[in-house]
Amino acid sequence: MTMCLLCHREIAAPLTLWQLINFQPITEQIVCTRCRQAFSAIDPQLGCQSCGRLSDQKKCSDCERWSSEIEFSNRACYTYNTAMKAYMSQYKFNGDYRLRTVFQLEIQREIQASKCDVVVPIPLHPDTLAARGFNQVEGLIGELPMLRALTTISATKAQHQSAKNRKQRLTTAQPFKLAVDSMQLYRKNVLIVDDVYTTGRTIRHAALLLKKAGATTVKGLTLAHG
Predict the structure, then answer these.
(1) Which of 46, 101, 181, 189 lies in the 20 to 30 Å Cα band around 33?
(2) Which residues in 8-73 belong to E strands, given as ranges?
(3) Do 203 and 220 belong to one domain?
(4) Residue 86 shares a structural domain with residue 182
């Protein structure tokens, strides 16, 4: 018996006849079926082709406002529903690093399917990293190769992104600067990975900077869309 990482109930691993006949090992589950089903996946065919949110339009009204920015599209895997909010709270704000494994394989499959040349995680401000002890985005990427191409500009963190309202987020100034030589991005197909797409301001700031550095294409991948 193993314990679900989210609800802490015991998980009874299903044993199939095929596994018995072929002496196959039982794959250990880390999240129970009940918890897994509480998350709401977004079918990429039913999402906005620009931000990835669940939408009946190919380009949602929010993304129409970004028309003057660079060409950019984001793939969001899940809606930011109650289950996802609880997961993020436990993973990010309570610092339960074990929870990176809940969606890690899925994020890795999405990265591999993107056929990108370079994976760039959204960085944390040094103050946040020191307090949390880990970058939750890098935790989701796991052992796959990544390029820490960005770093934050400000020396001190005035306010957490999660504490800002929509207007404050949209008017946030460019928070990033390059942390590597631009030649590492020149003519590369870049995938930016973040945890939650809210207004899109943060990931689009990053995309704009990477595009200016010479990247051929810049796309996004987020675990959830808020």
Answers:
(1) 46
(2) 10-11
(3) yes
(4) yes
> What φ, ψ does residue 195 adopt, rounded to 5°?
-85, -50
83 plus 119 within the same structural domain: yes
- Quickly state the pLDDT bin for 158 (edges 50, 70, 90): low
Pair 130, 165 in one domain: yes
pLDDT for the residue 177: 97
Inform me whether the pLDDT recorded for 87 exceeds 90. yes
Same structural domain for residues 185 and 108?
A: yes
Number of domains in the chain: 2
DSSP summary character for residue 225: E
pLDDT above 60 (res 131): yes
Predicted local confidence at residue 64, as pLDDT: 85
| Class of residue 130 by CB neighbours under 10 A (exposed 0-12, middle 13-18, buried 19+) | exposed
CA distances for 92 relative to 35, 148, 208, angstroms: 18, 19, 26
- Give the Cα separation of 195 and 100 in Å (integer): 11
pLDDT at 48 over 90: yes
Q: Give pLDDT, residue 85.
A: 98
